[in-house]
Amino acid sequence: MNGFGFLTYTIQAGFISNGMLLLDIGHQLLLRFKMYQHKLAQKDNLNKQPFVDDMPFDLGQRQAQSLVMFAMGLFFTGTQPLQAVFTCFFFYIKYWIEKYNLAFVYNKQYDTKGIIWKPTIRLMVISLYIF
User: Fold this and answer.
1) How far apart are alpha carbons 4 and 32 in whole angstroms?
2) Closest of 131, 15, 5 to residue 71, by C-alpha
3) Which tens digit of pLDDT belongs to each residue from 10-38?
4) Distance from C-alpha of 59 to C-alpha of 109, rounded to nearest angstrom
5) Domain that holds residue 72
6) Domains: count for the chain
7) What is the pLDDT of residues 81-92, one digit of tens each?
């Protein structure tokens, strides 16, 4: 192993996983399947109901991935200074993709009113302190 394992992981996460989030393939496939089921169920009804996409934004999973990338990016920056550049690049791309997905793609069913950021900031400060 050449010592750049996490650097390659960050580059792959920046391009592949963020690219998959942008394409939103999993959501699109599930949406098509649900639309097909809805059409079959509404075929014989006289009063047809419109299809509603009810898939919420998975905030917990996305937040956990971001915190792990932040902590690991800080951890490996000491041994691989180039890691900080790619971690910043990862978060730059992730910010724009998540902003687009929240605004235009996902159902806006839940509103946390900003309370999720207090524990997130606390965990980021703990990561900085450990670093």
Assistant:
1) 40
2) 131
3) 777 777 877 777 777 888 888 899 999 99
4) 12
5) 5-130
6) 1
7) 888 888 888 888
